[in-house]
Design a protein that fits this description.
264 residues, alpha/beta, Rossmann fold, seven-stranded parallel beta sheet, globular
């Protein structure tokens, strides 16, 4: 029975990973959420192979508790870790590094992004590594973004969403560092971009819609055939195909849901 730990599992892409993987009763799913109060959708699935654990990835004590819970359920092993939890400051996504109203606000967004998207991922991996070493698959997937691609940034002249993009570029290097260390042990570390996924729970404001359309215009410089965002269902289905096919020969890769560098 393959076992999966998925962070940020209460909604969006994380929830859809749980939904699709738990549809196979042979899989055991550990859904990590920041608060059990937000886990209604997971509970409503009503599947006995889903284990909901409250664990914020910025709380090492909570992560260690989650690892202990998983260890008790699996006999001290874990096959797959999917680092899906992340942070994006959407309210200021349209800003560039030199257009913030204050140095303090820029510093806050940079540190908040780095703390969750990089430091939190590192601690999660470290805490779950002892379980993963006893697993069969030994696959660690970190959900990243094409916005962390330097070439995309330059060709598309995409200068905003800077704190998020910077943190994703950093976590791509985190992925490579672990891959370089653990390839001899048969581990697969993968930085995987889910594509442009519509995870919205409300209609966008006029400002958000304007910023989104401006972003799409820039993306079309790279991908002229791009037609729009995809659903979490489609994204996760495609991501799972990549996850299942990738081998230790490709450990350390930074690729998309399409298995290549096509981010949209």
């Amino acid at each position: 029975m393959p076992s999966y730990a998925i962070t940020g599992a209460a909604r969006g892409i994380g929830f859809e990973f749980v939904n699709q993987l738990s549809a196979d009763s042979r899989n055991t799913i550990f859904a990590l959420v920041r608060s059990e109060a937000t886990a209604n959708k997971l509970t409503d699935l009503g599947r006995h192979n889903i284990h909901i654990i409250q664990a914020d990835i910025t709380d090492n004590k909570a992560l260690k508790y989650a690892a202990a819970e998983i260890s008790r359920s699996t006999g001290n092993s874990l096959d797959y870790l999917i680092n899906n939890a992340g942070f994006v400051e959407s309210e200021r996504a349209g800003l560039t590094l030199d257009s913030y109203s204050s140095e303090e606000l820029l510093t806050k967004d940079l540190l908040d992004s780095f703390n969750v998207n990089v430091v939190g991922v590192i601690h999660t991996i470290n805490i779950f590594l002892p379980l993963l070493k006893n697993g069969k698959a030994k696959k660690v997937i970190t959900i990243t973004s094409g916005l962390g691609d330097l070439d995309v940034t330059m060709v598309a002249e995409f200068s905003n969403s800077a704190p998020y993009s910077i943190s994703k570029a950093a976590v791509n290097m985190v992925n490579a560092k672990y891959a370089a260390q653990y390839k001899p042990e048969g581990f697969v570390f993968l930085a995987l971009s889910p594509g442009l996924v519509d995870t919205s729970t409300r209609a966008p404001t006029d400002k958000e819609l304007q910023e989104f359309m401006a972003m799409i215009g820039k993306f079309k410089k790279l991908f002229p055939d791009f037609t729009g965002s995809i659903t979490p269902e489609t994204s996760v289905r495609m991501q799972l195909e990549v996850i299942n096919l990738i081998t230790v020969n490709d450990t350390g890769a930074f690729i998309s849901h399409k298995g290549n560098k096509e981010w949209l």
